[in-house]
Predict the structure of Aspartate aminotransferase family protein.
Amino acid sequence: MKLFDVYPLYDVTPISAKGIVVTDDKGQEYLDFYGGHAVISIGHSHPHYIKRLKDQLDNIGFYSNAVQNPLQVKLATKLGKLSHCDDYNLFLCNTGAEANENALKLASFQTGKSRVIAFKNSFHGRTSAAVATTDNEKINAPLNKQQKVTFLPFDNITAFKIEIEKGDVCAVIIESIQGVGGLDEPTTEFYQQISKICKENKVVLIADEVQSGFGRSGKFFAFQHHNIQPDIITIAKGMGNGFPVAGVLIHEKIKASYGLLGTTFGGNHLACVATLAVLEVMENENLMENVNQLGAYFMEKAKEITQVKRTKGKGLMLGLEFDFEVAELRKKLIYEHHLFTGGASNKHILRILPALNITKAQMDVFFDKLKIALS
Ligand SMILES: Cc1ncc(COP(=O)(O)O)c(C=O)c1O
């Protein structure tokens, strides 16, 4: 059998990784400024993470959601405390798309309505309702296009109000900082206005923190930069440091009932322990402080690069905008300078998503190599 060929691949075969260093099958080392798409949060093969997962495997790796799993309760409690979201309940699932799918479904159950407001250039995943709220015609099949979704621009409160007041909207879904799109984000005023309008009209506000959550933006959740309280928050990527795990944080005013949501694999023992290990490392190693310091350092260093037209993002969810398309630069960085970086649907943006414990020295290497690659 061959693989279903959907991914254009770089010709690199990683076989081991430690911290932000990835080693390929030829012994070549790469610095990982991409984190496998914002997934590696506490660094590859963190010793505490490895120990927690190995110890758990020695006990029990999986049982379904038909029996008690105290690890889920432990995780919900710790997550509530570290994120300052104690007044939410946690539903565990497996991927970012699945988290958004469940969030949208809950909003529809809650309101009895079905139209969704999403934003231009958004990315919320590749499954049913999640892909329908993704502003990319090419990855929406006719089946997905049956969903009722309206895409609005950021920062146009009049357009937003007109759509909400039509009375048929169940949810507004917004990436707190756009990831795949290229790090755009609206103003705090816009966030606060849409939050208010949603509350007034009983529309469920969903903050997609799949990429921007878990400390990446310098606050636990990126919406916390804007002093709003969404009704539902979705999380995934950095949560498991590579273990497939995702979650939906549901404000306690939205009530659960048996069978409303469900999954076979979601919240299994290994997934819980992977996430607990990430939270423990974040807390014990003060990673959010590092995110803020290194994020600010990155912005300063970027000023030295004359070809950079603009810096974007917050914390360690970063982008450098050039006045040329960066595909060739990314190839050069990976093959000649051994640096992994990310792209965006805005083809002029080089995305930088390193582990949250990256050091200044590693950041310096990145900028030294970038300067050479651009010269
Ligand atoms: C903001 C956001 N939401 C949802 C998703 C989908 O997550 P997954 O690929 O785990 O389904 C992504 C993935 O890139 C994302 O960036």
Remarks:
- The mean pLDDT is 98.
- The longest helix spans residues 96-111.
- The longest strand covers residues 169-175.
- The chain has eleven helices and 14 strands.
